[in-house]
Amino acid sequence: MSSWFFFSVVVISIFSILLSIYIHKPDFPPLEIDPDDYWKLDDPEKDDDTIYSFTIDIKESEVSNFKEKLESERFLPTLYDTNYDNYLNELKQVLLGFNWKQHQHFLNTFKQYKTEIEGLKIHFLRVSTPPKDKKSRVVPLLIFHGFPGSFWDFFKIIPILTNPSRHGFDFGVEEAIQFEVIVPSLPGFIFSDKPTKQGFNAIATARIIAKLMYRLNLNNYFVHGTEGYGSDVATLLSSLYPTRIAGLHLSNPFVNPTFSTFTLAKYALKAMGQKDEDRENQENRETGKDNRDQMTDLADYFKQDKFAYPTNSQAFGAAFLNSPSGTAKYIESRWKQLSTFFAETNLNELFTMDEIATEIYLYWLTDTLPSALTILDSSFNFESVWLSSQVRIPTAVSYSKQTPWRCSKDILEDRYLNLTRISELPKGGMFHHLQDGHKIAEDIFSFVELQLLHKNN
């Protein structure tokens, strides 16, 4: 009798511990940050708050320099995958024959601006379409790109968001909805200035973008973050300035296992529970079947470089600064790593060569890769307290089919305390805005529509 009693007590105790792990939600105090800083080496000066139009105008000599250097370099052969080697050679030929002026003209069809914040001139797109009638509502939407990404990644989705009726969308119960879209080049990226003072990180990025929106007189807006770092900064912004943001929509966010002790325990328990499913999950990856129930494995997190950024950013940056082929190979390999499970799949099967080449040119012509790696190094490897920030405003999450990571609902709720929905997109990876723009636009519209309806009622 006593042995049964003891066994029952043990079982009940274990069950209680497991239950407490799953229902426990960490509650961290709000992150406190400095209200201001200055990111140039010279003496701080008052920012010029003028907002002026910006037109991309790259000198032909810079484009020629890229092509001349690239032509003298060669990609390192893989020795085992001739298909991939052939693809890299094709990419090199596309880059050598790339008509930058033509693509520059297309990029300039989007209205672009610059303004100075904390000593840095910040580049951003601000795109809207006049509403078709008085019943239409224009809603501000701030979009964050990630790494290695840029505003270019949204050229397919911006027209849908700003002029939905033209693309077959009809959202809004009480009034039609369309967006005014703001897409900044994050500080240190593309046409935004590069910080010259040490220590610039995600916290400074979020604060600067908050100041940008305030300067644009947009004090209540929705936020969409994507491509890893873009989701992280969007999360941080929503945590720091919750009264300014009406809702947060994220593509493929990741909650670090070290977010809290209970979060780590949830990952560990799920990893043990998934051991019997490993074979099936692997088969799903190999056949391309739906893997929505497959969460990122704890061991996978600690051994895979897709979750990490280089710690020796200065050395990497110096190499990329002087090597077009190195820049191209890094961006290409990172995109592949974040876009497909399948090693035999090349990027030209997922994106057009023009889309890949434009990203590479943007990063090279603006010296973005060295700057971006330094900022990521500072953000994730030195000053990572911001990764424990929590969001209390309404949040929606979408995961795409080929996302490199995935978090379960109970883990997402550790960080996003007002998680309203999780949706699944049928195709794409981290850069799915280029692969299936209509679906991600539809998901953003649906979330915003429900939030506005709830607010009005």
TrEMBL record:
Gene3D superfamilies associated with the record: alpha/beta hydrolase
Annotated stretches, region: Disordered: 273-294
InterPro entries per UniProt: AB_hydrolase_fold, Epox_hydrolase-like, Epoxide_hydro_N, Epoxide_hydrolase
SUPFAM superfamilies from the UniProt entry: alpha/beta-Hydrolases
Name of the protein: Epoxide hydrolase
Gene Ontology biological process terms, A to Z: epoxide metabolic process
Reaction(s) catalysed (UniProt annotation): cis-stilbene oxide + H2O = (1R,2R)-hydrobenzoin; 1-(4-methoxyphenyl)-N-methyl-N-[(3-methyloxetan-3-yl)methyl]methanamine + H2O = 2-{[(4-methoxybenzyl)(methyl)amino]methyl}-2-methylpropane-1,3-diol
Keyword terms of this UniProt record: Aromatic hydrocarbons catabolism, Endoplasmic reticulum, Hydrolase, Membrane, Transmembrane, Transmembrane helix
GO-annotated molecular function: cis-stilbene-oxide hydrolase activity; epoxide hydrolase activity
Domain Epoxide hydrolase N-terminal: 52-154
Subcellular location per the Swiss-Prot or TrEMBL entry: Endoplasmic reticulum membrane; Microsome membrane
Transmembrane regions listed in the UniProt entry: 6-23
Membrane topology type: Single-pass membrane protein
EC number: 3.3.2.9
Residues spanning the signal sequence: none
Family from the record: Belongs to the peptidase S33 family.
Top EC class, one word: hydrolase
